[in-house]
Design brief:
14 helices, alpha/beta, TATA-Binding Protein, 447 residues, Alpha-D-Glucose-1,6-Bisphosphate, Chain A, domain 3, 5-stranded mixed sheet, 7-stranded mixed sheet, single chain
């Protein structure tokens, strides 16, 4: 059964428009709190957020919901999403919540939930919470003497900073490296520069002046041109761009050339293989990762396992099958030895550690493989998902059959926006381009 509210990364939408309203946030707090209130101990939930103005609206509504079902609330303010996973487990909370729409513009917001282990919730648990939101399962409210309490944790950022620093190789530092760091005016705007500076890098910071409206606006991992230009202008050794909640990154070398998540995974995988620390005999990625990554891994004796799009699906597969490295082309990199979810800053330190230990330029180590051409297009729809129509499925299959085996198509509904995402990939760019255009035309006629 298709879920009503949860997508690939929590609940997301335009702030103050259904489903991202204060009323919904209240219901989510009540529903999730009710589901996770099990046992006789005092129950706790950790709530963090990014820098969007609407966070001030959603945070108190969620707090009220949790308090009403007897959960104590710990508020940590602006902090990266992976810090919520870490601190939920560290503080022995029953549940963690991040208020963020990740890489989306300021007018969107979202709610991401983590269990007591710091892991994103499974589809099954999210469905159970949805059933409570919709009233299909009753919510038991706390008696007046059993209401929860809310308090702020003042040292949350410091705890996370120290943890991230300790993922860098012992006895090494970043002395002598000039690094451009773009924090997207998001939740990493204080933490990111502090970590790099304390590891002795020279840091040129961008996107560190959030005002509630400028998160991801012309900056960060979705708009990395500013970072690339600044690296060249400043003569920096490398550039790192985070997204609004700092759970993903993109990199550029000293020449301003972009390095995506696939290249980052290839770099880390090769390095870990050499160190003997890579587990599972390969890595886990999604259907969107480039075929060039797969070929490179095969050439060094490793394999690539693919999941559906969404870093939580990658994480689930990694845990189930014993992998410690995985992620997405978009820059969600999961290093399971250190983090329960994608972490842009920990991934950045892994890349920087390769630079430090190899004593080479970023351009020499970061472009690991030659990617196959990929073409991506989006189609917005307002009513029913056109991919559910049998006629559309049949026509798409005909196009897919025409480009096999030298090319492939990945066509999917976005889990965070009302979009159909179409990706074509193959050695023959002209053939792939024609196939993508044909699919776009087919879907547009069906919308």
């Amino acid at each position: 059964m298709e879920r009503k509210f949860f997508g690939t990364d929590g609940i997301r939408g335009t702030a103050n428009v259904d489903p991202m309203t204060p009323e919904m946030a209240l219901r989510v707090g009540m529903a999730a709190g009710s589901y996770f209130t099990k046992g006789s101990h005092r129950h706790r939930v950790l709530i963090g957020k990014d820098t969007r103005l609407s966070g001030y609206m959603i945070e108190p509504a969620l707090t009220s919901g949790f308090v009403s079902v007897g959960m104590d609330v710990i508020l940590v303010g602006p902090i990266p999403t992976p810090a919520i996973g870490l601190l939920t487990n560290s503080l022995r909370a029953d549940l963690g919540v991040m208020i963020s729409a990740s890489h989306n513009p300021y007018h969107d917001n979202g709610i991401k939930l983590f269990d007591r282990r710091g892991l994103k919730l499974s589809d099954l648990v999210e469905t159970q919470i949805e059933n409570r939101i919709c009233g299909e399962i009753p919510i038991t409210l706390a008696k007046p003497d059993m209401f929860g309490r809310a308090k702020r944790l003042e040292d949350a950022q410091g705890r996370y900073i120290e943890y991230v620093k300790h993922t860098f190789p012992r006895g090494k530092n970043l002395s002598g490296l000039k690094i451009v760091l773009d924090c997207a005016n998001g939740s990493g705007y204080k933490i990111g520069p502090t970590i790099l500076w304390e590891l002795e890098a020279e840091v040129i910071s961008l996107g560190v002046n959030p005002n509630g409206f400028n998160i991801n606006a012309g900056c960060g991992s979705t708009s990395p041109q500013l970072m690339c230009e600044e690296v060249v202008k400043q003569g920096a050794d490398i550039g790192i761009a985070l997204d609004g909640d700092a759970d993903r990154l993109v990199v550029c070398d000293e020449k301003g050339k972009l390095i995506d998540g696939d290249q980052v995974m290839a770099l880390i995988a090769g390095h870990q293989k050499d160190l003997g620390t890579l587990q599972g005999g390969g890595i886990v990625a999604t259907t969107m990762s480039n075929m060039g990554l797969e070929q490179y891994l095969s050439s060094i004796g490793l394999h690539l396992k693919r999941t559906e799009v969404g870093d939580r699906y990658v994480s689930e597969y990694m845990r189930k099958h014993g992998y410690n490295l995985g992620g997405e082309q978009s820059g969600h990199i999961i290093l399971r030895d250190y983090s329960t979810t994608g972490d842009g800053l920990i991934a950045a330190l892994q890349v920087l550690s390769v630079l430090v230990q190899s004593d080479k330029r970023a351009s020499e180590v970061c472009s690991v493989f030659k990617p196959f051409p990929q073409i991506m297009k989006n189609i917005r729809y307002s009513k029913k998902n056109p991919l559910e129509k049998d006629s559309v499925k049949k026509m798409i299959k005909k196009v897919e059959d025409k480009i096999k085996p030298s090319g492939r198509l990945v066509i999917r509904k976005s889990g965070t926006e009302p979009l159909i995402r179409i990706m074509g990939e193959g050695k023959d760019n002209k053939m792939i381009s024609a196939a993508v255009d044909e699919v776009v035309s087919l879907i547009e006629k069906a919308v």
